[in-house]
């Protein structure tokens, strides 16, 4: 059976955002432990990014810095469906992906500040971090380039005969890059086990989807290659998990690639230098008040009696302690020795 076109099985839809509705459909059944774990993981990403923004403003982080605030449910929900050996690759808005993959907050923050204890030894910065141990292949600064690399990871899995799946994350802006469709073609031709996750946060830098894309339903971008697509409420971690389960099962069954369009939203600008004047404050506030992924889980935990306000405050405190420790480490850790410039250079 082919995957559903969209995650709209329930027929219910939420309010419009950026000219497009969230599709609310199939959701995974979460236990108390699932919801508490998702709450903690999303909160860790949120607090980490808030601290990274603070350190950037203080001058401890240089260059570009793209924050993931608002989009936390996407990567946390997807990660819940993965098994050991599955691979992840993404673009430059990558801090949240690394934390969800299990990479240490200290290592990520120290890389942001260019210190020796960073995951790329202080040489990669915000956009170029990797972990072979966690099967995380970056972090890439070239828009859309990671899609072809993620397709290559899937080719390697097919060649080796395992049932591992690769996840290639990219945004609505990168979805208009030509190499994306070259990758779609080869993945479909060879039935590669790759999930293309389009994080549609409504704006490619400062350009809205409607101004840049003739086809604004990104879940349908693979139709000419016979790649099925699912449109998902990317602000609901349960909806993401349900779609992730369906997509991973599709790939592991040898049926080829699949597209997941995650309807999500970033609260901050494209990067720290972006004042985001292309949208209104009311639009951002509406998204925060009606669709925030963390507040949804918090409300559900309290409503079901699975957690009290005090217990959730303790989780927040524990997360803040982890983030504060990572920030202290990232400021105190020494910079890499000059000789480090020549290590890991292959060409």
From TrEMBL:
Residues 41-338 form the Dehydrogenase E1 component domain. InterPro entries: DH_E1 (IPR001017), PDH_E1_Alpha_Subunit (IPR050642), Pyrv_DH_E1_asu_subgrp-y (IPR017597), THDP-binding (IPR029061). One of its GO terms (biological process) is pyruvate decarboxylation to acetyl-CoA. It comes from the Bacteria. Keywords: Oxidoreductase, Pyruvate, Thiamine pyrophosphate. GO terms for molecular function: pyruvate dehydrogenase (acetyl-transferring) activity. Its EC number is 1.2.4.1. Gene3D superfamilies: 3.40.50.970. It catalyses: N(6)-[(R)-lipoyl]-L-lysyl-[protein] + pyruvate + H(+) = N(6)-[(R)-S(8)-acetyldihydrolipoyl]-L-lysyl-[protein] + CO2. Its cofactor is thiamine diphosphate. Heterodimer of an alpha and a beta chain. The pyruvate dehydrogenase complex catalyzes the overall conversion of pyruvate to acetyl-CoA and CO(2). It contains multiple copies of three enzymatic components: pyruvate dehydrogenase (E1), dihydrolipoamide acetyltransferase (E2) and lipoamide dehydrogenase (E3). This is Pyruvate dehydrogenase E1 component subunit alpha. It comes from Allorhizobium borbori.
